[in-house]
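Ops channel
N.P.: pipeline sanity check, posting one input/output pair.
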């Protein structure tokens, strides 16, 4: 039998998705750090997993919906995490660049996102996007 190719995680960790972000998306375990949550949310965008994005969004900022199911134009190309810091046990931030294409045109989004620990679950609070 031919070995199945390992599916590397779309978050760019170079680890198999099944040992990286997928268990988080499947609700098998919470993200251990703000960076892990940020990576898993990127993968949720790649896979169009809107419920995961909404459930890991701080309630006060959470949109009603993201319309991901209707968005067939955006193609996610990759993620680079520049740094991740935790101010304390319950707050952290991650600066990253996500690359994507919309109808063949390449875009790049650099954002510093803030995260907060709620119980055992890190949630996305908000982010500041850097103008290109
Ligand atoms: Zn991952």
């Amino acid at each position: 039998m031919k070995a199945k190719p390992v599916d590397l995680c779309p978050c760019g960790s170079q680890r198999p998705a099944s040992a990286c972000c997928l268990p988080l998306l499947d609700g098998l375990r919470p993200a251990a750090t703000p960076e892990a949550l940020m990576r898993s949310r990127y993968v949720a965008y790649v896979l169009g997993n809107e419920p995961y994005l909404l459930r890991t969004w701080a309630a006060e900022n959470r949109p009603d919906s993201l319309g991901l199911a209707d968005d067939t134009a955006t193609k996610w190309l990759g993620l680079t995490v520049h740094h991740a810091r935790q101010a304390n046990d319950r707050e952290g931030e991650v600066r990253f660049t996500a690359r994507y294409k919309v109808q063949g045109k390449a875009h790049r989004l650099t954002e510093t996102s803030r995260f907060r620990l709620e119980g055992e679950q890190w949630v996305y609070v908000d982010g500041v996007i850097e103008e290109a």
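N.P.: looks fine end to end. The pocket of zinc ion is lined by residues 9, 11, 13, 20-21, 39, 43 (CB under 6 Å).
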